[in-house]
Amino acid sequence: MSKTVVYLIRHAEAEGNFIRRFHGITDSNVTEKGKLQAQKLAERLKNVHFDVIYSSPLKRAFYTASKIAEGRNINIIVRDDLIEINGGDWEDRCWDELPLLYPTEYEMWEKMPHKHCMPNGESMYELFLRAKSAFENIVKSNVGKRICIVTHGTLIRALLTYIKGYEFERLNEILWQDNTAINIIEYKNGKYHLVVEGDWSHLGKELSTIAYQDWWQQFLKERGIKKQDLTIIERRESYE
Prior knowledge:
Layout: E1 4-10, H1 15-19, H2 32-44, E2 52-55, H3 59-69, E3 76-78, H4 98-101, H5 103-111, H6 124-140, E4 146-151, H7 153-163, E5 182-188, E6 191-199, H8 204-207, H9 214-222
Parallel strand pairs: 1-4, 2-3, 2-4
Antiparallel strand pairs: 1-5, 5-6
Helix pairs in contact: 2-3, 6-7
């Protein structure tokens, strides 16, 4: 069987990322920094051939996919099942408010996210099942091709447990990824191989979103991860 290659990409920075409000299905615009991130991503991928490009319907994902698609003569296929988690009552709430308004749910989100359910929204496991089904359908429909999928951070984090062969209970071992981060997955003989995970080296520190945010430093500290440990194993010469 020929090899299938998937580029699984997080969208560029949107307003919710910048102002730190929970935007799951909230359809916020890409920021000016996000537009620069998307341009850097497009430049990084300009020599990568894609047979097909998929996107979440939300503006932040579709804009990012559109920048990748420029000059390629490829129509972007929008799939509703690639949308971010439905945050229910958390939608458009300030992140700082959430532990005060929803202390039990927020603690679950932080410590045992695999058990978390958004109040009047979607559970993490429901998101996982939706993401897995969408991913499998896309891959099986494009065997032997090079696929680009632009979607969202929480969805990617959940999906990577499946791609890595983890039990979903290990979700908290998957790191959050910066905007426009790239994951590269090979599929052959019925098995997935994660070649690149969470690579945002095309941004540099000046265009990073999370490098300047306190929650990211706290997230790493709680897991005993130092910056020098965040090395990215990649085989760029094989793909670009």
